[in-house]
Amino acid sequence: MPSRKKAKGKARKAAKEAAKAEEGKRQAVIANQRQVGPHEALMQRLNINATPLICKHGYGLVALTPGDLKICQDVIRTFIAVFTSREDVMECFIEASTVTHDKYPDLYSSKLLLESLVSCLLSSGTQRVLDEGDNCPARLFAMLACYFEEWSNVKVRKTKATLNWTQIFEFNHADDHTLVKYLRKRIDCSCLDKKYKEARCITKMGTCCNPSCSWPNQKVERSMMFCCTRCGDANYCSVECQRAAWKIHRGDCDKIVKLRAAFDSKQRP
Fold first, then answer.
1. Residue 100, burial from CB neighbour count under 10 angstroms (0-12, 13-18, 19+)
2. Are 248 and 204 in contact (CB under 8 A)?
3. Which of 21, 42, 86, 254 has the highest Cβ tally under 10 A?
4. How far apart, in whole angstroms, are the C-alpha atoms of residue 25 and residue 122?
5. How far apart are CA 209 and CA 29, in angstroms?
């Protein structure tokens, strides 16, 4: 009869072999995604129901018909296709939102569909963070989740006056600390707890809204930044940058202030 020590040794060996096999499968999936290209790889990730995940990070809690599920996935595919073919973020949003709004107008006014859409994006972004060292795809999913979350709050729930485009665009080049914290706060599982502990040591960075900012890529430590006191949306690294960008920002600032004043007046009894 084998000793207890030998039995434990065999169990450890079997566990290591199983873990090695599982890692081999995961690397094969990643290699396949790299081979087919970023656009197709992101499209594959959307088919969450066909992916053998242990946890779906909250996705699927909202019951949808097959038709509604197809609409949500088609909208995300359209945005991905546009974002992987263009560089200007605002142009991407305008083009993709115009195409999808014309094709699926009901989605943009449905709280249920928007909630499911955001849930799908958060789940996909979370799994990307867990699967790969490159968080670029996760940033795209987070940016789209933030956009549709903002849209729902402004246009459907009517709890806000305007979309915070600065916050949305921040995810285009967000640091891992900001990215993981955003996703972790919005999923109903603890899958990102370990990643968040690792990312907490990373300095949070923000983007100065002055196009001529002297900082590389206009990126500066978030703790050093301040926002426009009128609209609260535009962020700057210094008073000099705020003054330099005022001519560019003034038009948007005035619009935001007027929209918020009108929104606040409607909220009063």
1. buried
2. no
3. 42
4. 24
5. 39
**Residue of 65, 72, 61, 57 lying closest to 108 (CA atoms):** 72
Q: Could you give the CA distance from residue 170 to residue 150 in angstroms, rounded to a whole number? A: 14
CA distances to 46, 70, 105, 129 from 188, in Å: 19, 23, 29, 16
Tokens of 75: 């909208």
What six digits make up the tokens of 116? 């499911």
Give how far Cα 187 sits from Cα of 58, 98, 122, 192, Å: 6, 28, 7, 9
pLDDT, residue 84, reads 82
Within 104-164, residue ranges assigned H as helices are: 111-131, 136-151
- The first and second tokens of residue 43, run together, are 């499209």
Give dist(CA 129, CA 138) in Å, integer. 6
Residues in the chain: 269
Tokens of 170: 């921040």
Q: Would you state the pLDDT for residue 10? A: 62
Give the Cα separation of 41 and 35 in Å (integer). 9
Ranges of residues in the chain whose predicted pLDDT is under 50: 1, 28-39, 48-51
**Tokens read off for 257:** 């202030």
Alpha carbon distance 139, 177 (integer Å): 12
Which residues have C-beta within 8 Å of that of residue 255, sequence separation ≥ 6?
Answer: none
| Predicted confidence (pLDDT) per residue in 93-149, tens digit | 899 999 999 999 999 999 999 999 999 999 999 999 998 767 889 999 999 999 999
Give the residue carrying structure tokens 């001529």: 212
pTM for this one?
0.79
Give the angle subtended at the CA of 150 by the CAs of 147 and 153, to the nearest 5°.
150
Burial annotation 219-237 (CB, 10 A radius, 16+ → b, else e) = ebebeebeebeebebbbbb
List the Cα angle 196/198/203 in 5-degree steps.
Answer: 85
